[in-house]
């Protein structure tokens, strides 16, 4: 049997090119390669932005436009990132698979995922189509009802797909109900297995099936790596399927690191949900990595509550130079409402982090149910005074989360396209789109100022920065920058009308932000240089 594992394209206002490594497919390929001929088709990575084949969000036209210029830019246009339909059809036809298995991890892109299944059926109606990933796990009936998907795998997919391939190859369709985690329709009735959890997580992914040169952070080939799976916590806004926390053995991690070295990969991003929950185990992982010359990052799973300066020092020595933290909000009330522990330990480490050579990015959420604009302003003004880069995340209802279940109140599929930050979904009456958009622009202002501070060490005020070369060389940016300082309003330049116009904005938020920030410090990202607002 020939099996083709597919990562679909996506359509959105942006894509994060260093977050597309198809690790889950490499795991599945490693498990099934002994019982079939397997290949991986990545329809997303390295293909850039193209004209979309689907719809888009016309209601966002006032906010995201490619005819507007501003130094505080966000997104410009809705695009397709990855292969066009005809290219996918050609690739499937050339591969000639008996079975196509597609990952559907993000509900926001479930339409693009189902499109791949439909294309496979158009190429050859006899191709068996399977879908897995978080979205398929949560909504197996919805995925299967369209008729283009034959089977859904719920939960971790290595063993279920292995058993499915073996069962079909043996011609034993009667054995399908015994395949763990499998969902399908039989006689019009949905047969849905429980969410599968792998017992053995020490499998080494089949990275040899992926072209090393295609996946890069900067100039270095990169890969994702897991040292554990699952998360023991249950934050209200998180939609991760309920799988237990498990750690891999040190021997399997060491073996995998040697395989990664042998492939010439120079950068590793740890994708654990809870990378350093178990500090002794994490220290042993750092000891395994140290001295191998890898550039290390953890864009997703640093758990600040267990960190201390000794661990951070080991991380630096092992190859970490940039750290990503999740703060959510500086308000204890927000953390309590989200069933999340307040990050007091992280806040206590800030002075040490500022004196270190780490670059720090700290993420927080805008628009959570129960959150207030005042709390966002307090978080922003706190973070702007630290040597770090504030990273805003616009809240969206994550499928499977308690908050999502409380919002949809009926048919969840109506919310599927809304489950992405770029849509600026209003789950909180205090955060209409204009308010959320205003916060994002103000955060871009803060981060532009931080970059200017780093580049102009003699500056002591925002007025000094307005005379910096970066702004003086671009009169339009300078006018927009100084207008915000003087008039407390956001402008952009209309390149078609050749004139300045006011952006969609919440003027009360702009005024409140500058009133709160008045006299406070903004500190650089790479340096401790400071200016006052």
List keywords for this structure.
Rossmann fold, 533 residues
Tell me about the largest β-sheet: 7 strands, mixed
Beta-strand fraction estimate: 15-25%
Quote the distance from N terminus to C terminus. 66 Å
**Average pLDDT level:** 95
The percentage helix is 25-40%
How are the strands of the biggest sheet laid out side by side?
Answer: 3-1-7-8-9-10-11
CATH topology of the largest domain: pyruvate-formate lyase- activating enzyme
CATH architectural type of the largest domain: Alpha-Beta Horseshoe
The CATH superfamily of the largest domain is: tm_1862 like domain
What is the 3D shape? globular
Low-confidence stretches: none
User: Which CATH C-level class of the largest domain is it?
Assistant: Alpha Beta
- Derived from helix and strand composition plus strand pairing, the structural class reads alpha/beta
Number of strands: 24
How would you classify the quaternary structure?
single chain
Q: What is the alpha-carbon Rg in Å?
A: 24 Å
Give the count of structural domains. 3
Query: Please, how many helices?
Result: 18
Structure description:
With 533 residues, this protein is of the alpha/beta class. The chain folds into 3 domains: 2-47 and 82-192, Rossmann fold; 212-442, pyruvate-formate lyase- activating enzyme (Alpha-Beta Horseshoe), CATH 3.80.30; 462-532, no CATH class. It is built from 18 helices and 24 strands. The strands form 7 sheets. Strands 3-1-7-8-9-10-11 form a 7-stranded mixed beta sheet, with helices on both faces. The chain has a 4-stranded mixed beta sheet with strand order 12-13-16-17, with no helix packed on it. Strands 2-6-4 form a 3-stranded antiparallel beta sheet, with no helix packed on it. The longest helix is centred in the last third of the chain and has 23 residues, at 433-455. It is globular and about 75 Å long. The model has no long low-confidence stretch (mean pLDDT 95).
């Amino acid at each position: 049997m020939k099996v083709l594992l597919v990562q679909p394209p996506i359509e959105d206002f942006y894509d994060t090119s260093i977050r597309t490594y198809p690790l889950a497919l490499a795991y599945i390929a490693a498990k099934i390669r002994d019982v079939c001929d397997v290949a991986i088709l990545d329809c997303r990575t390295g293909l850039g932005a193209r004209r979309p084949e689907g719809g888009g969000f016309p209601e966002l036209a006032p906010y995201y436009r490619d005819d507007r210029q501003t130094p505080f830019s966000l997104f410009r246009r809705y695009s397709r990132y990855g292969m066009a339909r005809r290219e996918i059809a050609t690739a499937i036809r050339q591969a000639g698979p008996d079975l196509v298995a597609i990952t559907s991890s993000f509900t926001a892109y479930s339409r693009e995922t189902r499109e791949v299944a439909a294309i496979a059926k158009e190429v050859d109606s006899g191709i068996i189509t399977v879908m897995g990933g978080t979205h398929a796990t949560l909504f197996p009936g919805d995925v299967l009802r369209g008729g283009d998907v034959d089977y859904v795998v719920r939960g971790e997919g290595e063993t279920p797909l292995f058993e499915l391939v073996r069962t079909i190859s043996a011609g034993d369709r009667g054995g399908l109900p015994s395949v763990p985690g499998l969902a399908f329709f039989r006689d019009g009735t949905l047969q849905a297995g429980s969410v599968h959890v792998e017992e053995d997580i020490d499998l080494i992914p089949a990275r040899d099936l992926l072209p090393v040169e295609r996946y890069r952070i900067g100039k270095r080939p990169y890969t994702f790596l897991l040292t554990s799976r699952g998360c023991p916590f249950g934050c209200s806004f998180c939609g991760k399927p309920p799988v237990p926390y498990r750690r891999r053995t040190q021997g399997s991690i060491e073996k995998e690191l040697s395989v990664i070295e042998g492939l010439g990969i120079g950068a590793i991003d740890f994708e654990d949900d809870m990378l350093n929950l178990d500090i002794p185990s994490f220290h042993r992982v750092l000891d395994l990595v140290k001295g191998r010359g890898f550039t290390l990052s953890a864009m997703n799973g640093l758990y600040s509550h267990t960190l201390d300066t000794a661990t951070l020092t080991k991380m630096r020595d092992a190859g970490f130079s940039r750290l990503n933290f999740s703060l959510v909000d500086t308000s204890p009330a927000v953390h309590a409402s989200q069933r999340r522990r307040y990050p007091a330990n992280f806040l206590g480490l800030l002075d040490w982090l500022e004196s270190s050579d780490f670059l720090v990015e700290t993420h927080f959420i805008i628009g959570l149910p129960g959150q207030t604009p005042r709390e966002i302003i307090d978080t922003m003004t706190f973070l702007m005074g630290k040597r770090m880069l504030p990273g805003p995340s616009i809240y969206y209802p994550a499928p499977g989360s308690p908050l999502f279940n409380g919002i949809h109140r009926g048919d969840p599929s109506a919310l599927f396209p809304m489950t992405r930050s770029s849509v600026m979904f209003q789950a909180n009456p205090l955060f209409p789109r204009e308010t959320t958009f205003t916060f994002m622009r103000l955060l871009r202002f803060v981060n532009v100022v931080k970059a200017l501070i780093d580049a102009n060490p003699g500056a002591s005020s925002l007025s000094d920065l307005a005379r910096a070369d970066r702004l003086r060389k671009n009169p339009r940016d300078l006018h927009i920058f100084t207008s915000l300082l003087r008039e407390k309003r956001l402008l952009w330049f209309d390149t078609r009308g050749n004139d300045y116009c006011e952006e969609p904005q919440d003027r009360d938020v702009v005024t409140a932000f500058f009133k709160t920030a008045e006299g406070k410090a903004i500190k650089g990202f790479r340096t401790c240089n400071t200016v006052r607002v």
